[in-house]
Amino acid sequence: MADRLAQVSGHVTNTYGRGLLAGEVAIITGAGQGIGRSTALLFAKEGASVVISDIDAKRLETVEGEIKAIGGKVLSVAGDVGADDFPKKIVDATVQKFGKINHIVNNAGFTFDKMLHTTPDETFDIILKIHVRAPFRLIRQAAPYFRLKPEQRENRSVINVSSTSGLHGNVGQANYAAAKAAVIGLTKTIAKEWGPFGVRANTVAFGLIHTRLTASKEAGVTIEIDGKKVALGVPGAARPATTAQAEEAYPLIPLRRGGSPEDAAGSVLFLASPLASYVSGHTLEVTGGAGI
């Protein structure tokens, strides 16, 4: 691979002899575990300074230690992405520490599943708040560091995490499906408005990725939202123990397996990297071939 990739038309030059994201700065929300953690570790390995956030400060501290252990540069900003003061808090901390922002990965989120006819307003509203309003407010807060003059431009992108639920809907997920569909429209709008500034905006729509959100609900994993415990997971879901069991369990996935957080992180890295320098406004489906 060449040491440098120049986007002549966009006046952007990236040095990645030391990694695809060498010298760049990325904010990653929901980085305390799962996809966010794997993305933060991968970005750090590829040379980025990473600013990680999560509502669970203890988990965030663990991930910070993992990144430092591999020689990565990291800043932790614990907090609720839905809080009114969160965008300013994390943007100011990032710029104070690293001087700029190259990428925002809006990954934080959770599910609060109920059948449509039993879904109360607050259950619908909280999912839209975290999955749509929170990313919008963070991106808006960071606007001065993205809408730059040509001579100030580097590789910059916004990556919003969606889901196949947002593409196709899903039983028991009217709130989540609506939010994840909205994220796609938000992303395309950013691509059109900020494209003239050399900023790319893309969405990743994940299928089955093995995280706490897709694990068995019977495992009892919960998250506390506004003082209330919300059960996570899928009723009756069980991760196959062997390849043969997986092939039988996932007949609708051509690759015959669910994805790992590392699989998911690789797709996010691609969209952030110079390898996707002419990819913007796109929704990348990461599903193992499901839904084709």
UniProtKB/TrEMBL annotation:
Coiled coil: none annotated. Keywords: NADP, Oxidoreductase. One of its GO terms (biological process) is fatty acid biosynthetic process. This is 3-oxoacyl-[acyl-carrier-protein] reductase. Belongs to the short-chain dehydrogenases/reductases (SDR) family. It comes from the Eukaryota. InterPro entries: NAD(P)-bd_dom_sf, Sc_DH/Rdtase_CS, SDR_fam. GO terms for molecular function: oxidoreductase activity, acting on the CH-OH group of donors, NAD or NADP as acceptor; quinone binding.
